[in-house]
Design brief:
This protein is 28% helix and 24% strand. With 277 residues, the protein is of the alpha/beta class.
Length: 277
């Protein structure tokens, strides 16, 4: 359990790309994420304090325009399926604290995923705004930034190839390139070459934010909380999402990463299952 002081102290183990699908029961999702992050804390004993109970797991939701799982959590309409988890509102619209008598607490943060006209994805982290799909990349990023959210373009299979890859590289090299971060994806096969755009982000001192990015398959619920990054610092429990956004915005280097990307066999199996009728 967390202490009842006004501060939440790191390290924070952050999964920065969490989708929730109708095949994911709320209580099961929270159980799995909490267990995965606890395993990550145990495996990364060199990060943060020697007392792992201080570590806080953070799930950054990235919901499409069709979904609003976070609203159901915050409004309590998913409470009947929460499996022993108590969901506590904070002093802001974008965060919920989740507690369980037998499991580590977690911070749940609202966010959106937007599809651009070019077929790229843009994440709006720490936001409950609804954004239009189908705008150009530059317009989408501008809208996300105008809403006060963190704009992230996550890796996705095939989406950084050819013309879209060149478009994204031009944007990152432009004067506005520092207004967006890149995201890694737990589904990216570890045997694939590291995307060259990650090296460009490093040159520009822009962190790459990893996240699990689960697929709409029942088995993929087990991925949530298995891939992400670690932040140090402290948050006011009344406004933890705003504090998390500040910590991310202050990064000028790559934070430590926990977990790893998918194996090639699992990647192939998942891609086939997605495409089967």
């Amino acid at each position: 359990m967390l202490s009842q002081s006004c501060d939440l102290n790191g390290p924070f183990f952050v999964d920065a790309h969490v989708h929730v699908y109708s095949c994911y029961p709320t209580g099961r999702l929270l159980d799995v994420a909490s267990a995965n992050i606890a395993n990550a804390v145990s495996a990364n004993t060199g990060i943060g304090p020697s007392t792992p109970e201080r570590a806080l797991g953070c799930l950054l939701f990235t919901e499409t325009a069709r979904d609003d799982f976070f609203a159901a959590l915050r409004d309590g309409s998913s409470g009947a399926q929460a499996g022993g988890w108590r969901l506590e509102r904070t002093g802001e619209e974008t965060s919920v604290l989740a507690y369980h008598d037998d499991k580590p607490a977690m911070l749940l943060v609202a966010g959106r995923q937007i599809a651009t006209r070019e077929g790229l994805e843009v994440l709006a982290l720490v936001s409950r705004e609804r954004f239009r799909d189908g705008l150009a990349l530059e317009e989408t990023i501008a809208a996300v930034r105008s809403a006060g959210a963190i704009a992230v373009i996550p890796w996705a299979f095939g989406k950084w190839w050819f013309g879209r890859g060149r478009l994204l590289e031009r944007y990152l090299r432009s004067p506005d390139g520092g207004s967006v971060l890149l995201g890694d994806n737990g589904g990216r096969p570890g045997l694939f070459p590291r995307p060259p755009l990650f090296a460009l982000a490093s040159e520009k001192r822009l962190p790459v934010l990893p996240g699990s990015d689960p697929l709409p398959l029942p088995s993929e619920i087990s991925c949530i909380g298995t891939y992400g990054f670690v932040l140090e610092g402290s948050l006011d429990r009344r406004t933890p999402a705003a504090g998390l956004k500040r910590l991310i915005g202050d990064l000028d280097h790559q934070p430590p990463v926990f977990g790893r990307t998918a194996g090639l066999a699992q990647f192939v199996v998942n891609q086939c299952r997605l495409r089967l009728p």
